[in-house]
Structure formats: structure tokens, C-alpha cells
Amino acid sequence: MHQLPPPLPSACSAERSASHLVAHFPQQGWALRSDGAVLFEDTGELLPDGRIVPPHRPAVPEHTTAGDRRGAV
Questions:
Q1: What b/e sequence results for 18-46 when a residue is b if at least 16 CB atoms lie within 10 Å of its CB, and e otherwise?
Q2: Positions of E strands within 1-73
Q3: What angle do CA 54, 33, 12 make, to 5 degrees?
Q4: How far is residue 13's CA from residue 16's CA, in Å, rounded to a whole number?
Q5: What residues are paired with 23 via a beta bridge?
Q6: Starting at the edge strand that comes first in sequence, how are the strands of the sheet with 52-53 ordered?
Q7: In the 3-class helix/strand/coil scheme, how is the chain assigned residue by residue?
Q8: Residue 30, CB-side half-sphere exposure with 13 Å CA sphere
Q9: Band of pLDDT at residue 72, cut at 50, 70 and 90
Q10: What is the dihedral of CA 59, 16, 23, 55, to 10 degrees?
Q11: Cβ distance 34 to 19 under 8 Å?
Q12: What's the CA gap between 33 and 36, in Å, rounded?
């Protein structure tokens, strides 16, 4: 007997990252997940019900320049 795979979590659930990409357009900066959510290159999301998940990239530390390291050995 053929078994169906377990259902994917909905786009509104906390486990939504378990869904997979069904379309990917890196040149345009977005991808479509199997749960209907649109992912953007800046890590933001547009959920199927119209809600927005703001970008959640980790903070990037500031780069230091050679002039900032006075006295460093």
C-alpha cells in the first residue's frame, strides 16, 4: 500500500521552514515555497494570507580599517 508523505506545515506555523522551494528566481531576488509563501533575498517573507514577515538577517559587525588599529602589533 502506498503511503502519502506527511503534510507540510502551513505558511503561518512556526515550522514553515520545513516546506521546500517550488520556484526560485535569484535574478529577481525571490523564491516561492510549497506552502505558498514568497521568500525574498533580504530574508523577508510574504505569507499566503498577506501578512509580512520582516527581514531577519543577523547584524553584521562593522569592518575595521588599518587606520583603526593604531598601536596594534
A1: ebeeeeeeeeeebbebebebebeeeeebb
A2: 21-25, 30-33, 38-40, 45-46, 52-53
A3: 55
A4: 5
A5: 32
A6: 21-25, 30-33, 38-40, 45-46, 52-53
A7: CCCCCCCCCCCCCCCHHHCCEEEEECCCCEEEECCCCEEECCCCEECCCCCEECCCCCCCCCCCCHHHCCCCC
A8: 10
A9: low
A10: -20
A11: yes
A12: 5
Per-residue pLDDT tens digits for 2-53: 564 555 555 555 555 678 899 999 999 999 999 999 999 999 999 999 999 9
Cell numbers for 10: 502551513
Q: Which amino acid is at 2?
A: H
Grid cell digits, residue 26: 535569484
Q: 535574478: which residue's cell?
A: 27
Q: Which residues contact 73 (CB under 8 A, 6 or more apart)?
A: none
